[in-house]
Every structure is written in structure tokens, then in C-alpha cells.
Specification:
binds zinc ion; five-stranded mixed β-barrel; three-stranded antiparallel sheet
């Protein structure tokens, strides 16, 4: 068995038998990875980290050939993002991201862009930026990085340029003009400011995106577009999304 090192974000953990823990991780080097920590619950000093959800750790593990469950022999905490843990709203938003990564990323499928985006989102939340804004920026950039960006540069049905009034059509996965959008139950009104915000966030870096002012109406539209788009095209409705709705 090869012994490997990785930097890992903890997506989720659960108890296994009397003394062990199974951890779902997202690693920089190997993508999503599942591991078992034997004896962690019977001897709290055996490992240097408790692998709390959304903490950042360095791990050493024995690569499993067949089972897909790697044996983690060491883990060292690099950052527990304690600022996120002090606030229920940021816990809910960070949990939403962990849930999403767990569902979308396939085991042992390396994705450095996705990893960097996830780590950036945790760092920005931990620096005190508005967790909701960080989540929207993460989702817009992440959907683009996995090739699931909505089409926003013209009417998806007739190709006409879109100037003012437009609709977002979740079934078609992009904007439709007033003529094509009328009467389609999958179309909802969308502000020019919402479209401009998505394009700005897709193109710019995190600093530019975080400086962007988002009105309550734009936030509301972003939330609906992103949630509906992910649900329709990726069959995703993360469980923690329900908690998110409550907190907004
Ligand atoms: Zn059209």
C-alpha cells in the first residue's frame, strides 16, 4: 500500500463501529477521498486533529486499492476556521458548500480549481465577509468551473440580444427575451443588475467580487436562479439548503 500525503478539507464525518470514524474529505492532491481513522474515539491523543467539518488538515494515509476507503494514519489541523464556527449563519452557509462538494465531486477525481474555490470560500467567511455573499460568489464560480454556467449573453431560444426586460428560464438554462419568455412556466423575471452581477463575479477575482454591492432584490434573484438551476440541471437540493432558507 502506498503512503500518501494530502491537504484536506473535511466535508463530513460519522462514527464507525465503537472506536473509529469515517471522514469524507476534499483534497487538493486527489480530489474527494473517503478515509477511516481507527481508534480515534477510544484514544483522543492518537490523532492531532478531531477532523471537525470544514476544517483544513494535513493528512497521511495508506491508499486502499479496492475498497475506496483509505486508512488515515495521521492528521494535523492547519485551520479550523473558528470565526465560521462562532456564527450559526456562517456555519449553515459553510455546511451548504460541504454538502454540495460531497454530492458533486466523484471520489478520487482531482479538481484543483474546485478545491481552491472551496478553500477560498472558507477563508473569506473566516475573514468576516458576509457568508451569503461568499456563498453566491462560490456557486457562480464553481458552476462555471464545472461547465454548468447559465447562458446570459442573449436569448437562449432565438439568439436575439437582450437589452432591458428579460426572463431567466431554468429549463433552458439561461436568459430568454420577453417574446420567448412569455407564457413559459419555467421563466421568471430577472433584473439587468442580477445578470451584470453574475457576469462580473464569473470574470473577476474574489476581491472584485466581494466589493460588489448586492441589493436585497438582486440577492433574492441570485438565490432563486442558483438554487433552481442546480436543482433542475444537477438534480441537487442539498439538505442544508433548507436550513439556509430559514436563516435568510
Ligand atoms: Zn427570444
Amino acid at each position: 500500500m502506498a503512503i500518501l500525503k494530502a491537504e484536506a478539507i473535511v466535508l463530513k464525518t460519522y462514527d464507525f463501529r465503537e472506536t473509529s470514524l469515517i471522514a469524507h474529505l476534499f483534497t487538493r492532491e486527489y480530489g474527494r477521498l473517503d478515509g477511516i481513522l481507527k481508534g480515534i474515539r477510544s484514544d483522543s491523543r492518537k490523532f492531532a486533529s478531531n477532523l471537525e467539518p470544514f476544517s483544513l488538515n494535513d493528512i497521511i494515509f495508506y491508499q486502499a486499492r479496492n475498497s475506496g476507503l483509505h486508512l488515515i494514519s495521521q492528521c494535523d489541523l492547519k485551520d479550523d476556521f473558528s470565526v465560521i464556527r462562532n456564527n450559526l449563519k456562517s456555519i449553515a452557509h459553510a455546511s451548504y458548500i460541504m454538502d454540495l462538494i460531497g454530492r458533486l465531486m466523484q471520489p478520487d477525481d482531482k479538481n484543483i480549481d474546485g478545491y481552491e474555490l472551496t478553500l477560498s470560500a472558507l477563508k473569506q467567511m473566516s475573514s468576516g465577509y458576509d457568508a451569503q455573499k461568499v456563498l453566491y460568489i462560490f456557486l457562480i464560480k464553481f458552476l462555471k468551473s464545472i461547465g454548468f454556467r447559465p447562458r446570459l449573453d442573449g436569448c437562449i431560444a432565438c439568439d436575439r440580444d437582450i437589452s432591458a426586460a428579460a426572463f431567466f428560464n431554468v429549463r433552458r438554462g439561461g436568459l430568454v427575451c420577453a417574446r420567448c419568455g412569455a407564457g413559459d412556466s419555467y421563466s421568471t423575471d430577472v433584473l439587468g443588475g442580477t445578470i451584470a452581477s453574475i457576469l462580473h463575479i464569473e470574470e473577476g477575482n474574489w476581491e472584485d467580487a466581494l466589493r460588489l454591492g448586492l441589493s436585497a432584490k438582486v440577492r433574492d434573484e441570485l438565490k432563486n436562479i442558483l438554487h433552481n438551476f442546480m436543482e433542475f440541471h444537477l438534480q441537487l437540493r442539498p439538505k442544508s439548503g433548507e436550513l439556509l432558507e430559514v436563516l435568510q
